[in-house]
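User: I'm preparing a small set of examples for a lab meeting where we compare how different chains pack in three dimensions. I only have the primary sequence for this one, and I'd like the structure in token form so I can line it up with the others. Please keep the answer compact; I'll paste it straight into my notes.
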Amino acid sequence: MEPTEAITILSKLWPIFVAFIMLIVVLAQSHYRIKVLEEKVKVAFELINKLTNKK
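Assistant: Understood. Below is the structure token output for the 55-residue chain.
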């Protein structure tokens, strides 16, 4: 494989590499946000249950 062929292949495939990296970043961010929402819902239900049990 000549260096010019390697450069040509890389120039054609770089959008795929960038898209793959962006996909990983977006999935990691969404996973983090979902975990935060799960914790908030858990705390909200615990608070509601405490208020309901006091009555």
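A couple of notes for your slides: DSSP finds one helix and no strands in the chain. The CA atoms of residues 34 and 40 lie 10 Å apart.

User: Perfect, thanks.
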